[in-house]
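Q: Convert this sequence to structure tokens.
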Amino acid sequence: MSPGALRGFRDYPPPDAGARSELRHRMRSAARRAGYVELEVPCVESFELYQRKSGEGIAAETWHFLDKGDRPVALVPEQTPSLARIFVERGKAEPLPVKWFTVSKSWRYEEPQAGRTREFLQFNLDVVGVPGLEAEVDLLATAALVMDEVGGKGLYAFRLNDRAIAEGLGRLYGATEPARFIRAVDRFRKAPPLEFAGELAAAGVPPERTGEVAELLRSAGAGVAPAQAGAFLAPLVARGLDAAAREGVTRVERLLGLLEKIGLADRVVYDPTVVRGLAYYTSTVFEAFAREGDGRSVFGGGRYDHLIELFGGAATPAAGLAIGDQTLEVLLRDAGRWPRGEPPLDTYVAVAQPAFAAEGLALVERLRRQGVSADGDLLGRNLSRQLKEAARRGSRRALIVGLREASPGAVVERDLASGAQRELAPGAL
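A:
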């Protein structure tokens, strides 16, 4: 028995491989239209790169090993550390702002489930060198363009928040362990009420106040529309949010206003439960989520102003997002918008008699050199079976060489949709 694909890994035979290629093409095109340029990173990096960003706990999630020089290395679990390393190495060679995108495979040793595999493709957008909210606006606008171009228009929206607000809520409600409070808030939509209350208690929130936190988060529903966000946040400020948290409120309100100005108000909400569990996010955070079904997260990102410093660079503001192929595929398939795969063949060259096989091959080559997608029979099938193959391939037309009833040297063109035929002189192809 031959071995199959490893657990957590997938094969992509036709037509899915072609569909995925088409999606990557659309994503690249949209990113370039928005002024991003492509960066390519290695698939193996020093394991230290990820320890610096995420700490020792990252070991459980990565495919890491010793290379032949006994150096600890890892299959890349994400592109952002590589981006930071490259930015630092290039130093002042890159004029600011830097707008890079990557399309790369990544690997994480996680439990496979729907929308999550151990090998996946990730599309990253990053803006480096912009301290203001203009970076977030550009990222979200570009992400919206990407999603619309791949067929996701109307299927998604963005939830926005600011880490400073979440951290301020922890202080307001008496949390003594800020990191655990953030993790609890991050799990609010997934954890049963009793479990969530227990996680808040473990974060140091007094038992009599855990209900207040849950009610606040619950009152946001699926998210607060931009027009109502100010009214939702004002009572929190009045309850005593500290200065840092109030700055977060100001940022969120301004970001929502900017997004409304550029026409994205219909796909943006404020959501206090969005905190992005990764500790390196420094202020604004966001997630794209599915509008229908269970409202699952499709992708996320935010601002990470200290990451460049972590890798030895100067203090440099940065923000980014990452779209994974697996969650995107689930979203598009559920909506019936998955691409059909490879584009149909334009021309299929059929030969009516075996004696014309060489002429058929020559015509295929000629068409390809002219920029036409063309193919022909390689198995010596009869004409009827060749024409059935042309139809199966979705060809627009068949060019038939060697029909006895045709004029000498002529090729017969058959429109495969209508069945109409006409003779073409060799120079008219």
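DSSP finds 14 helices and 16 strands in the chain.
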